[in-house]
Amino acid sequence: MPSNKRTIRSKLLSWYQESARDLPWRHTQDPYKVWVSEIMLQQTQVQTVIPYYNRWLKRFPSLKTLAAAPLEEVLKFWAGLGYYRRVKMLHAAAKFVQSQLKGCLPETAEALMQIPGIGRYTAGAIASIAFQKKAPLVDGNVIRILTRLYEIKDNVAKNDTLKQLWAIAEDLVPLHSPGDFNQAMMELGALICLPRNPACGACPVSSECRASASGQPENFPVKTPKEKIKKLKTAALVLKNPRREVLIRRQEESARWGGLWMFPFGESPDQIAEELQIKKIPAQHSFIIKHGFTKYSIQLHVFEAAVDKKKSKSLEIRGNRWVSLKKLPSEALPSPHKKVAARLLERVHAPAHS
Fold first, then answer.
1. Which of 105, 147, 158, 303 to pair with 317, CA 20 to 30 A apart?
2. pLDDT tens sequence across 275-290
3. Which pTM does this prediction carry?
4. For residue 340, what are the contacts with CB-CB under 8 A and spacing of at least 6?
5. Where are the domains of the chain?
6. Considering only CA atoms, which of 200, 206, 102, 214 is closest in space to residue 151?
7. Among the options 18, 38, 151, 245, which is catalytic?
8. Is 38 a catalytic residue?
């Protein structure tokens, strides 16, 4: 266990008080708001989260309002943040807390972890920040800091290594200001102790860091080699009816973007038309949207086609609906399809050339 924990605590807390970014979720100890911020910040950059967080709290200012809202509306306020499983679990957990715990989140990490969808990291964040309980949290930033501080050369993908890191983190968290300390660790990882080119000269605990002393901080953490990114091509079909509306489809709950609305998509325009149970139609290739998730790099080829009144009517079946272009931004579309909508709208509003 760390022998220099008092020095690390003191230096890190002093640095955090002087240098912490002014972020909206740092102005509250409301456990619900802390919870929302932590879920949004998972695998998402801070600057991306800020406007989503502010909009979310205007619509769902309390756990009660979130629990009472239909999933489709909740998805609309999350659309574009990605990793939609997060918001579905947040919504389900809010319903659980409202119905089973009288709308109150418990104060300890152990009790919080009994709520479906709240893992050890999120429980530690809520307990320490909202309730000032001594509870550790370990994420990618904290793993990087701890393996560098103590030159931990074991593979962090192994359970034994993770157990060791959780034990060190638990020992480091102080009884007083545990929330500030945990946020300081996350802030250090986000701003100073970076994966590449860490700013060791600006680090408040560099004098305590063994990896910095050896001049090899980038050798930590030790990880399993990443899988090679696979490149995929997919297609989206923008169908327009005589009223200049476009067709969107609601994804089944079991699908990747379950519950969200999207342009019909698949392997090719012909395959999409077949799935829509319409005859092959002449579709023009318009543009390409690039996006990615986990181990995939994806090119979304966007095609456009017009359909007559008869075909338009036949497509008005469950799961499909026609919407005007101007209403597309308010629909619950996943990020790549939001980009498609934005490109379509840009073209409509582009100034005509004389």
1. 303
2. 998 887 889 999 999 9
3. 0.82
4. 236, 238, 263, 289, 300, 302
5. 5-219, 230-349
6. 214
7. 38
8. yes
